Amino acid sequence: MEGTSFRAQNPAADAARAAESGRVEGSDADVAAPAAVDAAEPALELVELTESDVEIQLAETLRATRGLVVVLASAQNIDRLVTVYRAALRADRDLVVDLYTADIAAATGRSSIPAVGDAWPRVHVYAPLRQRVRVKESGQFERVDPVRDRRLYADQLRERAAQLVLFGAYQGEIPSLIRDGLLTGGAVVWSMWDGYLDQPSGQRLHSALQSANIPLIQHHTSGHATPADLARLVQALRPEVVVPIHTEAPDAYASTVGEIVKPHADGTWWTV
């Protein structure tokens, strides 16, 4: 239920994942596992997918696909970046990101985040055409220089298709990947809110993939805060009033947070 903070979670699975060392067999560096969740804490939402579930299911898809796999996701979703990297290692594939994702990973400044560089030899860069054009027109060659030794090109994607998974802003690149035969025997994974697929760009993606007989597989779970997290935040801040926003279930806040919840309809004015 993307777009709402009242989403599903499996605390026990997340706790188990957090208990791991953060290192996946076959990895080149440690990946920080999510903070541990108290498995004894009452669940306030229905059980649904966790990042651990996404990792395991995506790894199965990677193993079952003989060609290149492209994971379409937000570069700003750092949890998903880590999840896809871990899934890639489980399937003995290398991770390939676009320039923007490489910038975001580097900007975190955290050694535990998969980034392009010597510390992460199984992370590479493939720059989509629009990003290459933007760098050339803006003269921002400093974005390319740090990743020069890790860049891959179309011929290398073709040669190593079964060994790679692309992650990031590649939706606009799908038609050219299809045209150049880079997705033959491959698959595209949608790892964002499925509502975007109903929009014109999503419909164009559907059409292009169907025409080329390339599967579109969904592996996703919401990155929004859980009700338990929201309740802890309210307890810590102790506000007089809580107004739920960006949610499909504003009335559910009252049963979780209490009587201080005051829902307001979109587009209405109210006094603070």
Describe the structure.
The chain has 272 residues and is α/β, with parallel strands linked by helices. The chain has a domain at 51-218: 3-Layer(aba) Sandwich (Rossmann fold). It contains ten helices and six strands, in the order ααβαβαβααβαβαβαα. It has helices spanning 11-19, 51-64, 78-90, 99-107, 129-138, 154-159, 174-179, 200-211, 227-237, 252-257; strands at residues 69-72, 94-97, 123-125, 164-168, 187-190, 216-218. A six-stranded parallel beta sheet has the order 3-2-4-1-5-6. Helix 2 packs across helix 3. The longest helix is centred in the N-terminal third of the chain and has 14 residues, at 51-64. It is globular and about 60 Å long.
State the CATH superfamily name of the domain at 51-218: Metallo-hydrolase/oxidoreductase
Taking pLDDT < 50 over at least 5 consecutive residues as the criterion, the unreliable ranges are 1-47
Q: What is the CATH top level name of the domain at 51-218?
A: Alpha Beta
Please trace the helix and strand order, writing H or E for each element: HHEHEHEHHEHEHEHH
Give the helix/strand layout.
Elements (H helix, E strand, L loop, with lengths): L10 H9 L31 H14 L4 E4 L5 H13 L3 E4 L1 H9 L15 E3 L3 H10 L15 H6 L4 E5 L5 H6 L7 E4 L9 H12 L4 E3 L8 H11 L14 H6 L15
Helix pairs in contact: 2-3
Overview features:
globular, alpha/beta, Rossmann fold, six-stranded parallel beta sheet, 35% helix, 272 residues, 6 strands, single chain, disordered N terminus
Quick recap:
The protein is of the alpha/beta class. The chain is built from 10 helices and 6 strands, in the order ααβαβαβααβαβαβαα.
